[in-house]
Design goal:
Number of strands: 0
Number of domains: 2
Length: 468
């Protein structure tokens, strides 16, 4: 269903301006509700309803007049929200996140997380590098709900440190995402390569300074928050050995490997088309939706197997098993994931992205300001990288190319940086929402911690643009 703001040509640039005003108003209400302590899941759900009404989702197809028209439009909006919550990808995401949460509870119950934290500390002798390594290792692969894999591990390493809950959340969130600027396994980078018709390696190379800036920002502004007297661990932490780390992290590595296998098969099919015929499902590996389905299915299968092995190997009784299950499958977590899916569905159905982009283009601002504003706003609204790339790049492609038709790589890198910064601070970014929920952190403190590394990435992108 499309909102009345969708047809920018019919309503002119004012449609984009009013859409932007309405979105800003709803986000202001969200901030107010979160500061009042309302659970984020309910805030996002209310935001979806408010945005739906404000942007007219479903009302363009309403019938009758007066009260009948209002009721018809409201019913259409509710149908759209239910549709967004019950899409196959939404249900798979819900199942995956809840299973990962159960997996984390099981790992904690059998003290695997503590064993991993202790063995990694013994190897690295520094709590900062242990936390950063755990989060960035999990972040190497696109993993829906991956924040709930790394967050308990970071929490274990930081269990005796004088760090706030907000610091732990920021460290886990930021270090998990330092690779996405250059990691070709992430669909956002692959989508950008396809839209611009350029090799993904070219985008990886030009965006590598952003990756370096993100790592430096995480080390300098976040990991340094660990008090100096608590950073190092002595010989009493144990002998330095890689094997205890491998043994402790084996369950997590099994899940990561399960996520990697479909990605690797897809890369083989893409780079060696003749080999696609001998792979299971053949040419389907060229379909991004199939790759996503295969990745999620593979992860679910691995999670079920690992949880079963953990239960059996540690002789967990049925009563203990039910307790672990109840710790993972909660109404609060379910509402959180469902509300994210609903809000994303309402935003996509409203069709507001194109009018906002057209409005900003008609303001007469410099191209880099328009491009940066559009992708940043859409990144904040959607909360995932593929969303802003797929939504904005086709619209802005003409502005991102040089007069001869070649891609303006520094400007493209600036666009990706701005969009991804919007994603990183988005209150609907599932990784941030889940990590915040796990550590029970306050939004204000999280954003205060994330601001300096975000500023460093932003300045790096601007310098790349100016020196090009």
């Amino acid at each position: 269903m499309l909102a009345v703001v969708q047809d920018a040509a019919q309503y002119g640039p004012q449609a984009g301006m009013w859409a932007l005003v309405k979105v800003a108003s709803v986000f202001a209400v969200m901030v107010l509700l979160m500061r009042r302590g309302v659970a984020i899941g309910y805030v996002l759900l209310m935001a979806g309803v408010m945005l739906g009404f404000a942007l007219g989702v479903g009302f363009s197809e309403a019938t009758g007049s007066g009260l009948e028209w209002a009721l018809s439009g409201t019913w259409n909006l509710l149908v759209e929200m239910v549709r967004a919550a019950t899409l196959p990808e939404s249900l798979r995401l819900l199942c995956l996140v809840l299973t990962i949460t159960v997996f984390g509870a099981a790992m904690k119950h059998v003290e695997k997380l503590r064993a991993l934290a202790d063995s990694l500390l013994a190897l690295l002798r520094d709590r900062r590098w242990a936390m950063g390594s755990l989060a960035s290792l999990i972040g190497l692969l696109p993993m829906p709900g991956g924040a709930m894999v790394s967050a308990p591990m970071v929490g274990e390493v930081a269990r005796d440190l004088d760090l706030t809950r907000e610091d732990k959340t920021a460290i886990n969130h930021w270090m998990r995402h330092v690779w996405e600027y250059v990691d070709p396994l992430y669909p956002g980078l692959l989508a950008a390569s396809a839209i611009f018709a350029v090799p993904v390696t070219g985008l990886m190379l030009v965006q590598s300074p952003l990756c370096i800036a993100a790592i430096v920002g995480g080390v300098v502004f976040l990991l340094r928050r660990v008090p100096r007297h608590q950073r190092r661990v002595g010989e009493d932490a144990g002998a330095r050995s890689v094997m205890p780390v491998v043994k402790a992290i084996a369950p997590v590595l099994a899940v990561i490997l399960a996520a990697a296998i479909p990605q690797m098969l897809a890369m083989v099919a893409k780079n060696f088309p003749q080999a696609a015929h001998i792979l299971p499902f053949g040419s389907w590996w060229g379909d991004k939706d199939f790759i996503r389905l295969a990745t999620e299915t593979s992860m679910l299968a691995a999670l079920f197997c690992v949880i079963y092995v953990l239960f059996k190997a540690n002789h967990i009784r049925r009563r203990e098993g039910w307790q672990i299950l109840r710790q993972g499958v909660t109404l609060q977590m379910t509402a959180l994931v469902v509300s994210v899916c609903v809000l994303k569905g309402v935003i996509e159905s409203s069709g507001m992205i194109e009018p906002i982009a057209i409005f900003l283009r008609l303001t007469g601002l410099p191209e880099y300001v328009v491009i940066g504003s559009v992708v940043f706003v859409v990144g904040v609204l959607l909360g995932y990288t593929f969303g802003f790339v797929a939504s904005c790049y086709p619209i802005l492609e003409g502005m991102l190319r040089l007069p001869g038709g070649e891609l303006n790589y520094p400007l493209a890198a600036f666009a990706f940086a701005m969009g991804f910064l919007g994603v990183l601070i988005s209150p609907v970014h599932l990784c941030l929402v889940l990590a915040r929920e796990h550590f029970d952190a306050e939004w204000r403190g999280i954003y205060k911690a994330l601001l300096p590394p975000c500023a460093l990435v932003f300045l790096t992108a601007v310098l790349m643009l100016l020196w090009a």
